[in-house]
Amino acid sequence: MTAPSTPADLPALRRKLAQETGPRFWRSLEELAETPAFLELLQQEFPPFAAAAVQGFDRRRFLQLMAASMALGGLTGCQKEVEQRQLSPYVEQPPGIVPGLSRHYATATSLDGFGYGVILRHEMGRPLKVEGNPDHPASLGGSSAIGQASILGLYDPYRAQTITQNGQLASDSALRTMLVERAAALGATHGSGLRLLTGAVTSPSLAAQIDALRKAYPQMAWHQWEAVDRDTVRDGARLAFGRVIDTVCDFARADLVLGIESDALSAAPGHLRYARDFAARRRPDDAKSPMSRLYAIESTPTLLGAKADHRLVMKPGNIQHALRLVAGAVKAGPSDWANIPVPQAQELAGLIADLQAHRGRCLVHAGRAQPADIHALCHAINHALDGFGQTVHTIEPVEALPTDGDTSLAELVADIEAGRVDTLFILGVNAAYTAPADIGIAAALRLVPHSIYLGERADETAELCHWHIPAAHEYEMWSDVRAYDGTATIQQPQVRPLYGGRSAHEILAMLLGEARRDDRTALRERWRHASGAADFERFWTEALRAGVVPNSAAAPTRVAPRPDYATALPPPAATAGLSLLYRPDLGLWDGRFADNGWLQEMARPFTRLTWDNAAEIAPATAERLGLQQSDMVELALDGKKLRAPVWILPGQAAECVTLRLGYGRRRAGPVGTGVGVNAYRLRSARNGWNAPGLALAKVSGRHLFASEQHEWLMHGENLIRATTLEQLHGKSPVPEAGTSDASLYPGFAYDGIAWAMSISLNSCIGCQACVIACQAENNIPVVGKEEVARGRIMHWLRIDRYYEGPLDAPATHFQPVPCMHCENAPCEVVCPVQATVHDSQGLNVMVYNRCVGTRFCSNNCPYKVRRFNFFDYSGDDPRPRESWNPEVTVRGRGVMEKCTYCIQRTRQAMIEADKANRPIADGEVLTACQQACPTQAIVFGNKNDTASAVARRKASALDYAMLDELNTRPRTSYETAVRNPNPSIKTS
Amino acid sequence: MATAETHWREPVIGPEQNYATVSEHLSDLVLVQRTPLWWYAGFGVSMLLFLWLVVAAVYLLANGIGVWGVNIPVAWGWALANYVWWIGIASGGTFISSLFYLVGADWRNGVNRFAESLTLFAAAAAGLMPIFHLGRQGLFYWLFPYPSVMGIWPQFRSPLLWDFFALLCYILNSIVFWYIGLIPDCATLRDRATTRRAQIFYGLLALGWRGSARHWRNYKIVYLVMAGFMAPMVVSVHSIVGLDFAAGIAAGWHSTQWPPYFFIGALYSGWASTLLLMIPIRRLYRLERIVTERHIEVIAKLMLATGLMLAYCYALEAFQPFYRGDQAERDAYLYGAFGAHAGSFWVRNSLNIFLPQLLWIPALRRNRVLLVLLSFGIVVGMWFERFNFVVTALAHDYIPSYWFTFSATIWDEGILYGSIGLVLAGFFLFIRLLPVVSMFELREVIRRKERA
Amino acid sequence: MAAIFGPRANFYTQIVLISAGGVIVALAAMILILPNTGYATDIGFTPPQPVPFSHQHHVSGLGLDCRYCHTAVEQSADAGMPPTHTCMTCHSQIWTNAAMLAPVRQSLAEKQPLHWNRVYTLPDYVYFDHSIHVAKGIGCTECHGPIGDMPLTYKATSLYMGWCLDCHRNPAPHLRPHEAVFDPHWHRTASTPSPAQLMAEYHIHPATLTDCSVCHR
Q: What is the residue range of A377's domain?
């Protein structure tokens, strides 16, 4: 199993690294330590009966999934031939529907209120796959892991399916009666007792409805709460400009980027667009746009930091000092700031010089987890360096009510406790789980006379409210949403509510007495006014088709920081002592996706953990406290205590413990309940992101992590090739890319199409979108934590993570690894039944129904990209039968599977081309991973067509094949990672 | 050295023995003697183990091979180790009875029947393993080239397919070879049998053998041909098992040395298991004058010699990765020796190489208790060799992000221990129902002695 | 002493040995023969249908084109089954009260689909595409047999993989000109282009047709 990792003797590791000459890639501490841990592993090898029994039977998660699928009314995966299958044609065929042909509809998903355009692929009326919308400014065709997994959320069989009153089933009419009663009662008091709690709202129509509501009930109050909020961003704007302003970054124009623990590539509104623009400037061989330089200052690793040419690891307090220093130096603040003493002054000096050299072409961005003064300083620096109008644009706030969540929620609780609240509507906010521990929302909720919760799931909040109304999924309702730059999208339902969910619009309408209201009509009416289009029908159909409301982006405003903003800044945090950093999880966000099996089983980019969060601590801190991987510790903060397992994370700031939000759910269905530890139990409104004064004590017990990467020695210098721009431009030699095509036999001539893939290590930001896209497209089942821990994860595509350089601040490399489709495939010759063979396009195809499961192919695969159905994983997967992709075989027990280059897509394209007797155009076929990738790191196509993108990539000097010394001649190749460090900074 | 001299002159059969005594002694064991308690005990225990195999197999077939510890990358685990191990044990018997028959070694006649019977059951146990280990066990027959309606054939380039044929031939031929060797003795038993049931039972097995000159002539020809056929086959079978791995690209498998390596290992475990069973039976059945010190001496020496050959193989195994200078291979070897599964590596070295060196000393060589212990050690050590070989290369292949370990579950254990039960149960039945030593061949030995 | 076995024993033994050999041979023969028997191939299988639809009457008799009902056959993998409305285009005019059409009228009235029993069923791991076969000059009858003369639709071919491969390995003899694809009674005439010509016209390369990925995804 993964966990019992070998104790790492950190001082020894430092010495070891000190001795290393040249780049030394390593993956983990155990691996650096190179300690055999003899006895422990003997133990692993010959477990005593008890231990073995535990492994054998106690596969809790797995059994849960099984049980769940039983509950679902049968083994969904079972593909037994029924006696007599039937054909049931339509009575009346809907126009445009052709059986067997897929259709595509645009809409948008939203995260913390901000919209991302998507296009859903439908098969026979069922939405089955989410893709980014190329026409949408916040997506440009890219998508995120969360976006990709949203389709599973739609089909999630554990979504609430019935209205309940005090836990008892209630009828629709009962609900309507209740609402009418409430409306009447509240009307009498002008709504003085009415409270509305929502998440961040950018939807113009919802905002309009709420306005209407406020007119009808003048005394009501609207509260907002997002666990992963943007309060600091707004406060920063207030500090700098005196009012709330949203900023839109333009990474495409930034020659120099400074990220202050920036979430620009992972979570910031518009992060997909930012990632695309950013990657476009990190192409070493692109003559048109020179490679940009990236500095990152952060306390805990971010996706942006992983790409940085210079990554400065600092405690939050020091970051504040450092940024003041920078501000002072570039005349963005009091000149006396310029001589604040801070660590890593040499790097900062280099950075400052670089900033001044790139006036007007540099961009400073801070993540939402940074305090307000950091954001204010960023604005000031951007302004001082003429960034405004160049790399940064300011727009009026996109949110309808840009308010401070903590205050808002605190007020609500105060009102409730003062008995001023009679009726509380909670629209889709799981406040009972996500609210800070010091705001006693849970207790308060019990005091509300009438609480109505509209939520997708019977979660912690539903438990505490009188009424729970199942909410419709975003793909089930008419609405609209605005993107980071204000662009609006009209969300159209992709399918009738599967489980009878209702939309917020519907509930508010009922409250407004619009009894039988139709969301679509209302939305059309609203937009008829808003658009002011002459030909509204054309506007409407066009907006729906494109998934974007034409030129609805917010107009830039001209603002400048107040000259005296510096005086208003709060003092920097103390730099002494342990502090706890709360951060959103890349998959679960604030916990709302906890019952999404795909996101739970997605290996996190840095820890490679699945089904867990952990107290992520720096090696130095582990050293100081004598902690080892998977030890249990007790975190104590303001008298509150929480036990969590330790994960030692290189590149983490010393004395900082990072804890991901969204785990430890109590009521998140069979999949999400009880996974990881609940950070909210420590979180306070005051220190929502960085909490100083943390006490940490080792307690007994060790934790079993399920990490996709197993911790062992790393000798793979030839797996990752890295160089610098300097070397590339010949100032010093590039590491040679040795390759050998030696063969006794003439190779097979691929004269037709030769599918091939190239993956750029410069563009890959490790966001995992491709992994989930692959899972969605190719019917890859979820196996559960125990099975992952036993080395049986099923992902066809994984993203390996490599470290380079010093322990405390290593450079990070991400390497996506799909099937290499070797021309000399070692897997093929060893299969006794020809279940894996080559086809004439050079694909290494896996024929599931021929496979008998000898598994020799996996043994013989040097890249270890093959996956085996040790159990009937598909059959035990709780997702409903109709949610599988009909274009891909659902694999049964005992067969091998692997990446196919999305053969269902290539084959379909070839059939279409063949019918028309035309060649396939370059870019006509996109693999699922390629299509999802926000940075276009993955290029796929016909390498025989010299004009094709993939052929051009492979022609580059940077192109290399993994393990090419084995002469497997992979069709998948990589683009050497190139960094662009500042020559004036001597990296240790 | 004097003692050793005398021992070398120790006859292959007690001088006082004559046609009558050997036939009488051996057939009485089967026909007259009442079933001894130790037999019931032994057979009972074996059957219990065998039952474990049945349970483990049913559970396996019902739930899939996920019940084992196998994973990605270590997709082959105990089942394959068991397979190679059992095949190895099997080869010993065939080798004794075929090759030493061809070179006309008299001592061979004292032990070949044991060894061959062991071969039979070991081969059967080996045959089960590859089928159990399939993901879809029910479709194992797809490896057999028959004109299916799918219009496709097996992959003839795959070592697993060669293995399939090798194993099939080996099992079938072993049965035939063993049975042919039995016919004249069955006739003897038929003639000596007193009860009707015994007469019919042995009569049927004897296939109407009358011992006429013509019978003997045909018999000799057939047996010689079979022997001449089996000797190379036993070599090829285990070489092909070696090729299963040699043809793989996995670092630590991809090497031409495995065929001889595996074959030598096979003989080694063959000798050991023969001794392991022979010494107690000899004692319990009072066969000291028929299976003499000489036999034990010879096999012990064979064991020592084979052990040295194996040591050479191990040395080569260590030498080659470093000689070839392939990073991954070096790592794989070092991992095998010091990594997660190093236990099996050192167990195998001590039990297969270090301890058996005691056999240099004649006195120890003649200490039967020690011999039994050493042989037991070697049989165990050989399993650990197979395990270490199969698992470590997989656990430590080219891509470090997929380096992992293997940890067995009780269902792995069930299959291994259960298969031991299968073999022992079969062996107990054999020693109860059939003459443990070939009577007519002993008579030949006596005749040759008299001639001389 | 008395003989254990009677004089007949040898005879019986021989019988046993010979029959044992016979059994083995028989088994081998079974393996070869059984799959090709009608029992295994299901050729001629005629499942009951809610309405006894006759292709013979509609196609040969009335001369309806296949595509009148199976509208998707040229664009999609599925040929497409006609919605109830298609039936009613005519049957709202003729045979309006015919008892055998009651289910159709009921389907329309209750907006409930007709449930036809499948005649041809492929395993889920086989991805057959009607449109490409039609586009490449494979006539309906190549797989569906004399469909135009079937009073009740029955299974005309085994659909064994081997059967598919026969054609995929050597498509030439099975090709016909575009205009003849939907003709249920077509056969080669002197004027028909030669198989070789058709192969060229359709750009068919048999070498690529036997890739596993052609049908299995």
A: 246-395
